[in-house]
């Protein structure tokens, strides 16, 4: 079990994710986050000195959840093709975890006005490229490491289109087409 | 020369584009747009009854400008490959016209909370796919029409990564790599 402090931080940042998805970055304040997490006034300020610190922690939370999902897909996905894994990841991200990715895109645009958030997102993006390379190696996928940065950019872009469409418009066949395109872009012969 | 009313609408929506890029969607109000365009108080309300009408007109303005650029690229780009055209378009969009595309991404996220804006963006997205198919045909590019919707999604996604990075981080070699990946995703043998 995580220590109580970690649990509380997760509750607060999860509330921030929900608010970012529902109301945009303007909807995230210490007070709104406490209310949404059903915690007493003042809790958020105890954990996050500033609004920017809260936004930074929320970005870190999204990426930690994303990497945890990728790792689980590695365990259950042995034998799956790169297209299977990416299609499944995109579809789940655009439906079950839609709020989480809407939140990270809101934060990405907001980072242009907040240097500390920009620095965090840049570090997280580098970490995601490294994580994805290792993930491909662990799964014996025939994807050249030098193609991964481009694939991550295209995956992120495809996900932006999917989560910023109206909910319910995400179509499994279209998602599979995007996954095939992403894999083909990296490895011409693989699909 | 366009009629004075069209000119005034363009001034107001161009001011809205600049504000969206600088301050996010929350920075766009009738008053802020008039100030930014150096026009008298009340002008914006004369043209746009509501804040949503102003945002809708701004989305239409971005797409009209985008299509005009694509048409110009068609005139000057005879003989260019699909990769040349897409790399050039992405680079210019991410540098010279960065504000315009930051604006459309801000509007895309905001559209999840505004049905009229969502309907406009959906219609504009369909129009862009149709426009791009015709553009490819005019230029004799060997891109299958059925691949265009996926290419437009990947182009939009790549552009999101580029314009939401810090200004000055846009690298011509990386942009060319993205353009090659997008074309390869649509037409495996073309690059």
Can you walk me through this structure?
The structure is a homodimer. With about 190 residues, chain A is mostly helical. Chain A has a domain of about 130 residues. Chain A is built from 9 helices and no strands. Chain A starts with a helix and ends in a 5-residue tail after the last helix. In chain A, about 40% of the residues are buried. The mean pLDDT of chain A is about 90. The interface between A and B is large, with 38 and 38 residues.
Give the oligomer, counting copies of the same chain as homo and different chains as hetero.
homodimer
Number of helices of chain A: 9
What is the end-to-end distance of chain A?
Answer: 42 Å
Please give the largest β-sheet of chain A: none
Q: Write the element-wise H/E pattern of chain A from the N-terminal end onward.
A: HHHHHHHHH
Organism (chains A, B): Virgisporangium aurantiacum
Protein name (chains A, B): HTH tetR-type domain-containing protein
DNA-binding region (chains A, B): 29-48
GO molecular function (chains A, B): DNA binding
List keywords for this structure.
homodimer; 191 residues; mainly alpha; 9 helices; elongated
Outline the fold blueprint.
Two copies of one chain form a homodimer.
Chain A: H1 4-23, H2 30-36, H3 43-47, H4 51-76, H5 82-94, H6 98-110, H7 115-138, H8 148-163, H9 172-186
Helix pairs in contact in A: 1-2, 1-4, 1-6, 4-6, 4-7, 5-8, 5-9, 8-9
Organism (chains A, B): Virgisporangium aurantiacum
Protein name (chains A, B): HTH tetR-type domain-containing protein
Keywords (chains A, B): DNA-binding
